[in-house]
Amino acid sequence: MKSNFLLPSGFRKAGWCMFLPGVILGVLYLLGEYPAWLELGGTNAFALFDGFSDTNMFTVTFNDSWTEEFIIILLALSLLFIGFSREKDEDECIANIRMNALVWAITANTALLIAGTLFVFGLPYLTFMSIYMFSLMILFIAKYNWLIYRFRKNSSND
User: What's the half-sphere exposure (Cβ side, CA atoms, 13 Å) at 13?
Assistant: First the structure.
């Protein structure tokens, strides 16, 4: 099966190299204990929507720190690279495993959203939603790697 939507297999290593620092920086940022060098300087930025100004849409606003944006982009790119890099031996079976993992991750992620909405309230809900942004890809990568591990283990036993 020809799958043009996958990245070359080398992107997986680059993704892992970006993911580990991204997670560490993200956790430090959520805890409020990130190092001072991580506080990236502020500049004016174009905003499609700005909840802090009188003119909410299509405005220029001052962003006092690019730290949040840097961490989010780092994590998003790293998870994309890890999750959608081609296997060295990509075939129909691997594509089927990839699809099954994606369906499972979407179902589990929806259950996580429902549980969080029912049981997390107030400002912690904002933190939950910040983590939830990445949970679909994390669940997909974990399930996919688990299924690939089991598939290769069973294949080597036969």
Answer: 4
pLDDT at 34: 73
Q: What is the DSSP string of the chain?
A: ---TTSBPTTHHHHHHHHHHHHHHHHHHHHHT---GGG-PPPEEEEEEE-TTSSS-EEEEEEES--HHHHHHHHHHHHHHHHHTBPPTT--HHHHHHHHHHHHHHHHHHHHHHHHHHHH--SHHHHHHHHHHHHHHHHHHHHHHHHHHHHHHHHHHH-
Question: What is the structure's pLDDT at 74?
Answer: 96
37 in Cβ contact with 66 (< 8 Å):
no
CB atoms inside a 10 Å sphere around CB 138: 18
C-beta of residue 82 within 8 angstroms of C-beta of residue 141: yes
Burial class (CB in 10 A: 0-12, 13-18, 19+), 61: middle
Determine the residue type at 118.
L
Amino acid found at 139: L
For residue 70, what are its two tokens? 């840097």
Instruction: Give me the pLDDT at residue 109, please.
Output: 97
If you average pLDDT over residues 1-5, what whole number do you get?
A: 61
57: confidence class by pLDDT, cuts 50, 70, 90: confident
